[in-house]
Amino acid sequence: MAKILILNIDNASAWGVSRQLWTLDEGDIVISPMPIDARHLEYIGQTLGFDASTVSVLPGNQRLTDEHDEYLSPGFAALAGELEKLLDRSPSWDIVPCQYTVGVAELAVQLGFPLDGALRFAAQRGPELLNRKSHFRQLAVGAGVPIAEGSVVVSAAALAKALERHMPKTGTVIVKRDNSMAGRGNITVTRASATPMPGSRETWQTNGDFQATAAALWDGLTDDRSRTLVVEAYHEATHCLWFEFLIDEWGRPALRHSGTFRRRQDTDPTKPALVWVGLDLPAELPALSAANAMLLTTQLVNLCAQVGYRGYVNVDAILTPDEGILINEINARWGGGLVVDVVGRRLIGKYYADEHVVSSSSDIPPISLTGALKILHTRELHYSPESQEGVVVISSDTKVMECAVIAENRRRSREIEAEFRKAVTEALQ
C-alpha cells in the first residue's frame, strides 16, 4: 500500500525533516514543511533500492495540527486539492504522520478517507492525553509503574513547596515544562555545583531560597499556553534508554526497537548542557534490568492502547544504581530512534538487532552529502550489503550531519565511526 507521509514534526529543521525520508518507498507522497534536497532523496533511493523519482513532494505547513487551526486555512484546502490529483496512481493509500493530530484527521476527511482507529482518536485530540508530562505522571501512577518522587504544580507557590519537598531525596530536582521535547524545557536545580546533567538544558545551583528559585523558574518555563510544571527528584543514571512500540489497529502493542542515548561533555566547560551525540540500538542492559524494563514499559503501553491510542509510542526510562528502573515519560509519536531502526531493518532485516547494532552520530562536523559520500567510498567505509557493516548518511546540511553506523558489535561500530570522524575533520582543515 502506498503512503502519504506527513512530516508534522516539532521544531522542524532541514536535518529533522530530511532524516524522516528514510521511511519512504517507491510511489509514496510526502508532505514536507520545507523543501527537500533532491540529491539526498536520490541517495536514499539508491541505498534502499527504489526509484526515488517516483516520490511526490508537496509543501505543507509545519504541524498539520490544531494548535493554530491550520486546517481551517485556504492553504490547507489547497493542499488537499493537490493530494487528490495524485491519488489515482495507487488503488489504496495509508496516511502516515509523524504524530496523529486533529489536522491529520481533518486532511483524511477532506480526502474521503474513513476515520478509523488512530485517525478517529486524533480527531478528538486523544493523543494529548499521552503527550504531556503531567498526564504521564497521572497515567504512570494509575498503571502502577515506578516513577521518580515528584509533583505536578500549577503556581509558583506550589513550585516552591515542591522544590523544598523533593530536594532532600537526592539533593537535585528536575523541573519540566509540561509540553516540551528532548529536554529543551527541563532545568535541574541542585545543592551541589551546577554542572551539565543528562536530560536538562541547564543546571541551577540553589542556596536554599526556594521562593526566589521558584519565581525565576516559573517565569522562564511557563507562558499563556502552559501554566503547568512537573517537579521530580533527579536520579543519576547508569543507563538512559527508551523502548518504542507500535500499537496496531486492534490495540495490540508490539516492541519495535529499544536503545540508549549518547551524550558527552562539551569541550567548552561554560556550556550549560551536555552535547547530544546520538543513539545506540538496541539498548544494552543487564539481563534482569532489561526484562524488568520490558515488563514495565509494556504495562504502560497497554494502558495507552486501552484508552484508544493507535500508532507509535515511545517510553523513556533510566536505570539507577539504587532505584532500578524508573520510567521518565511517554510520547505518542515517532521517537528519534525510529528512523535509525528503519535503516537497520531495511538494510539488514527485521531482526537485525539479534546480530547487529546500529549507532547514530550527529556531532561529527557537518559536511555536504557529496563530500561525505566521497570520503566514505574512498575510505571504503560506506555500508556494504556484502559485509553488512559501514556508514549511512542519514541527513546532512550546513548545521548538522547525522550518520548511522551498522556493525556486528558496539566496539566495531565505534571503530568505524572514529575513522569516519577523523577523515571528515581532516577534509575540513
UniProtKB/TrEMBL annotation:
Name of the protein described by the UniProt record: Peptide ligase PGM1-related protein
Transmembrane segments: none
GO molecular function terms listed in the Swiss-Prot or TrEMBL record: ligase activity
SUPFAM superfamilies for the chain: Glutathione synthetase ATP-binding domain-like
Secretion signal, residue range per the UniProt entry: none
Domain ATP-grasp: 137-361
Keywords: ATP-binding, Ligase, Nucleotide-binding
Organism: Streptomyces johnsoniae
Domain of life: Bacteria
A Pfam family of this chain: PreAtp-grasp
